[in-house]
Amino acid sequence: MRLEADALSFARAAQGYARADALIADGRIELDAVREADSAGIALLLELKRRAQRAGRPLEFVGAPPQLRSLLGFFGVAPLLGIDVPQTHKHTGDGTT
Fold first, then answer.
1. Domains in the chain: how many in total?
2. Which of 13, 21, 80, 82 is surrounded by the most beta carbons within 10 Å?
């Protein structure tokens, strides 16, 4: 399923929670159209992954744009979602990146 441009923003994340089961149904979420993301959107992606794992279903996130990958790297959650980030955006947890 493809997410809309602003689906990972604070203003729209609640809609994502409401349709979480539909979003994870086919096991693939396309992120290439996402143009706006913030911490609420990151929380939504983590929740979608958690729900899929709980249901015993695989879930793949594909096509994450650079801004989203950078944000995921900053928060240190990219590996949890199976999304690669450039080395310069990886959070090491020791105060350095």
1. 1
2. 13
